[in-house]
Amino acid sequence: MNSDVMTLMTGVTDWFSQPMNWQGPGSIPEHILEHVTYVLISTLIGAAIALPIGIGLGHGGRGGLLAINLSNIGRAIPAFGVIILVFLLVGYGVIPVIVALVALAIPPMVTNSFVGMREIDPAVRQAAVALGMTGWQRLWQVELPIAMPLIMAGVRTSAVQVMSTATLAAYVGLGGLGRYLIDGLAVRDLAQVLVGAILVAVLAIVTELLFAGLQKLITAKGLQQQG
Amino acid sequence: MPIDSALPTRGSVCSLQEDTPLTNDHRQRVSAEDRDTHDSSAIVFEGVTKRYDDGTVAVESLDLTLPAGELTALVGPSGCGKTTTLRMINRLETLSDGRLLIGDRDVMSVDATRLRRQIGYVMQHSGLFPHKTIADNIAVVPRLLGWDKQRIRERVAELVELVGLDDTLAQRYPHQLSGGQQQRVGLARALAADPPILLMDEPFAAVDPIVRAHLQEEFLNLQRRVQKTIVMVTHDIDEAMKLGDRVAIFAQGGKLAQFDTPTCLLAAPASEFVVDFIGADRELRRLALERLDSLELDAGLTAPRDEIVARARSYLQQAGSSGIVVLDEARAPLGWLDWDTLKQADDRARIDSLPLKPWRHRLYVHDNLRSALNALISAPGEVMPVLNAQGRYLGVIDQLQLTRRLS
Question: Nearest residue of B to residue A130 by CA position?
């Protein structure tokens, strides 16, 4: 048992220390690049869909629960199922993967941006109206800046989730860090599987930290010292 | 009796409210000419009704004219439609029926956002924007109106001072300020573009009583300077009486029970509802609204300080008075000389060599009757001199005279 673990650890260290794994096709940087590309594309598309919905509903204040419930149902559908489904419909390619990841990215962003908008102090909203701001002015000058921390928290959750789920791309023959998992399992190379797992975990943590920093950076100063 | 004749004849003052520039007791009134220049900001409700979709009627065919340059307090139990009435003025609520005019402009014919930029609005919870500094909060409406930066900066500095804030607070954020300070910022923000009209929705309700009294006092002073047309919603009848030039009392269901000056509401309440709402200490409130110069003061018995005892004694005997007010050369009262002291004194002595009794309180003509009564109650049986603003003797008053005013 103990020696198994030792062997595994040595395997992993070997993997990371071999120069051939750091350059050329199928190397670690290449898989990371593929992985991050999937994540960036799907998170951006997801945000382009989810944020207007959540923010729009939150601004208007109507139909929000419906949207949240729908997006939660979406959350219940397994990403793997979506990949297979879209794969069957459109065939081989990057599209099934992106569709599945976008579907995964949408719910946290809809929910958070809606809640962020709704949680703005009613007195503040009312003041904005009473001072004579138009709908757009209220949105850009008052509501979005105040809701921004929660909106960004939604984007961050989505991005981290997508980052860890993007491994599924490998199932339909694409690249990314999932390759190590799929290929490793196929040849029972546990060290390779573990390498993949470690890399995904590290990327997820890095994403988390990046967004936390970003969130702090764009949160208005007046909102920071508050609870 | 001289005291009763000093009372305003109720019928004449209290019914002619529309055309008479009223003399309100606790502040300088706007003269008739001044009011004309403000008339474009008079607010007129003509048969205004607000009915909600579910059928509840918040305000029912309201006819009301709020004169320009005056502060009208809307007061009543909760659910009486006073807030709805206020919010219809800047179209936060839409009228179901009737017309609402500002000057001669129908509010429904004006673009809502433009209308609102011309009307200041102060809320119970300041509603400050938490992500903006105090200076930026105050600058909101001037920015919406497209003022240039220099003008905005100057105006903000001016307002910070006007509402009594320390200018070091300008770069802070709202959550760093106390409730009272936030309310001041809310007021500054509402006044930023110098709107002729100011709407205030329970502006002092959320601050603690001590701060509130202070803010109210300062606000009154501010209003004397800026002379805006102000509509203020409050559930506190004391606040309404203290701040309002006129008070509109609403009853449940959005009906106007009475609209009058505080003095007239107290002197001539229109219904049992109004009597109940004003409360049991109505007479005491009335005292608070009247000043000593509304009384015909008793001239009293006085003597200059260099008078001799013998002569003072004979004055006193002739007048049948219990004492005499001794005045100095400037006719400022030195003290009270009573019969017992005078009786034992040497005939040829000057009266200012005798032990004179000083007064613990000084009453001035501009003091209100309530504080006069307080002073008199704390010194039972005493006769107190009333002074003009320069401290010269005008006459005397005693407790009996005041209590007679109460009945």
Answer: B116
Cβ B79 vs Cβ B59: under 8 Å: no
> Can you tell me whether residue B153 is helix, strand or coil?
helix
Which architecture does CATH list for B12-118+195-290? 3-Layer(aba) Sandwich (3.40)
Residue B200: φ, ψ to 5°: -130, 120
ipTM for the assembly? 0.81
Q: Where are the domains of chain A?
A: 32-220
What percent of chain B clears pLDDT 70, i.e. is strictly above it?
Answer: 89
- The shortest C-alpha distance from B174 to chain A (Å) reads 8
- Check residue B406 and give its pLDDT: 65
| Alpha-carbon span B92 to B100, nearest angstrom | 13
What pLDDT digit, counting tens, does each position of A190-207 carry?
888 898 999 999 999 999
> In the block, which residue shows the tokens 């936060």?
B92
B126 part of contact set with chain A, CB < 8 Å: yes
∠ Cα B326 B402 B399 (to 5°):
55
Residue B117 distance to chain A (closest CA, Å): 5
d(Cα A59, Cα A78) in Å, to the nearest integer? 30
Provide the whole-model pTM: 0.72
Q: How far is CA B57 from the centre of its chain?
A: 32
Q: What is the mean pLDDT of residues B8-30?
A: 42
Q: Give residue for tokens 């804030």.
A: B165
Interface mutation vs chain B, best among A124, A131, A224, most B CBs within 10 Å: A131
Joined together, the tokens standing for residue B328 give 């100095």
Q: Are B307 and B316 in contact (CB under 8 A)?
A: no
Q: For domain A32-220, is the CATH number 3.30.470.30?
A: no
Contact B35, B68 (CB under 8 A): yes
d(CA A42, CA A83): 13
Put simply, the answer to whether B140 touches A137 (Cβ < 8 Å) is no
Domain ranges of chain B: 12-118+195-290, 293-406
Both structure tokens of B248: 């509109």
- The 10s digit of each residue's pLDDT in B170-212 is 999 999 999 889 999 999 999 999 999 999 999 888 788 888 8
Contact B141 A145 (CB under 8 A): no
d(CA A157, CA A75): 13
Of B191, B247, B248, nearest to B223 by C-alpha is: B191
Flag if A222 and B132 touch (Cβ within 8 Å): yes
Write out the residues of chain A at the interface with chain B, using a CB-CB cutoff of 8 A.
Answer: 121, 123-124, 126-134, 137, 142, 145-146, 220-223, 225-226
Rounded to whole angstroms, how far apart are CA atoms A130 and B122? 9
Instruction: Answer whether A156's CB lies under 8 Å from A8's CB.
Output: no
HSE (side-chain half, CA atoms, 13 Å) at A210: 12
- CATH number of the domain located at residue range(s) B293-406 in this protein: 3.10.580.10
Chain A residues within 8 A of B140 when measuring between CB atoms:
131, 133
